[in-house]
Each structure stands twice: as C-alpha cells, then as structure tokens.
Design goal:
Blueprint lengths: L7 H21 L11 H6 L7 H10 L5 H11 L21 H13 L6 H13 L23 H7 L1 H6 L6 H12 L13 H12 L3 H18 L6 H14 L11
Helix pairs in contact: 3-5, 5-7, 7-10, 9-11, 10-11, 10-12, 11-12
Length: 263
Amino acid sequence: MTGKHINVKSIYNSVRVGLGYLEKSCKETGLQNDCIGTSRSTLNTTKHAEDIFCSLMALDLLGTSLSQQTKKKLYEFVLPKHIYFPINYYKFERLIPDDAENSSLLHYLLKREGYLVNKEKLLGLCRLISLNTNKEGHIQVYFPPRPNREDRVDPCCGTNAMRILYASGNDWKLEANEDFLYSFLAEERFLAGTRYYSSPDTFLFFLARTTSLNERAKGRFHAVIHDKLKQRIGSSNFPLDLAMRILTIEDLGMTIKYEKIYH
C-alpha cells in the first residue's frame, strides 16, 4: 500500500473495533436483518426478513478471527434442517425460490470446516447446481419452481454458485458458464455492475476468490482479473469497494503497492 504515513497500530485498533462491533451485533441482534435503505433508524425500528447471506460472508472472511462463541452462533443460524439440499436466501420465510449462490456458499463453508462427510450427497447437490442452467448454459440464480424468475442470471451469483463445484474436485461441465463469466470480465461489462451487485469490485472479488479453488480456472482468469483490478485501483473511496479490492489483491498474490488508503 502507498501512503506518506501508515499508522499500523491505528489500523490494528480499527480492525479490533470492527470485530468487536460484529461480535456485539451478533450477540444482540444477529447479522441477519435484511434491509434496503440509508437510515440506521429504519434497521433499528422495522421488522425485517432474516437472511443468511451476511452470516455466510462473515464466516467466509472472518472465520478465523471471530470468537468460537460467535462462530458457533452463526453456524447455528445458517444451518438448515437438512444439509446437502438447496437453501433459501431467507432463513424462515420463503419470499423467493431457493437459490444456487447461497446453497453453494453454505456447503463450501461446511466442507472447509470438515462437516460434510457424505460425498455422494454432496455430489448430488453439486449436480443440481451444475444442471441449473438456462439454454445458453449459464447458471441460473434460482432453482425451480421459480415463477416469474425463469432465466434470471447474475454473473456474481453464477460465480459464487461455482464455489462448491470447484471445491468438490470433480470436473463439472461448466464451460458455457465459464465462457460467459470470462467474456463479462474481458469485455469489461462488469463495470456497470450486475443485477444484484452494483459495484464492479464485487465481481472481481468473487471471481478471484472462486477461481482460486481450481487450477485450470485460476490459470484462465487470474491474469485478466489482475489487469482489470489494476485499472480499478483508486477508482472509488467507498470502504466496501476498497476492502474488496484489497482482498482481491491478496487472493491474486499481487504485491500490495497500488491501492491508496483513504482517511
């Protein structure tokens, strides 16, 4: 990273404060309130459907930094009644169909933690995800039945849906979906965001993280992600964008000398 003066102690303290906030939030209200808006009072005063995606992201990125108590609580929340099956974005309400993205992320985390021991059942779920494509071979966001959501595709969701497929080690037939993601990257269509993720940095982050699990995909994608990421350096000072760019830099094994720290 560049900068005239970097106070490492200040950065460490900020990380510690941030983790403390997450631990406290998880203990008091959980990390599952689904809210679209700009007002903190809206989140604090309105009842919201409880989603699992935020908890999955916390476990994926902060699993080794969270306390065992918080980690246990998050896993208890995200675990469905039955594993090896598709899951829903929402924990208790079926407002939308089950989706491939969250199903893949959850089972990837469970596999990483050593909780999945039935290989045949896991391969069955992977098969469902790999076959959940449209006529072009792109992984669809939702599993059937999906009224009014047929042929709904999002490159970020399609990338995350492949996480458990790559982690399973099998050679799934993903060429059409990979070609779609590659063209979306190489032609810089990701700069306009995706249906569900508005930041270009989100796509680069998810794509680098997922393709890191497969040597063939890594060889195909990482050099291009590297080039596109360099063009994104310093493009915005939104904290989440900056965090995703730094994490992508680390996933790619780049030297962290490009990104600017905003104060």
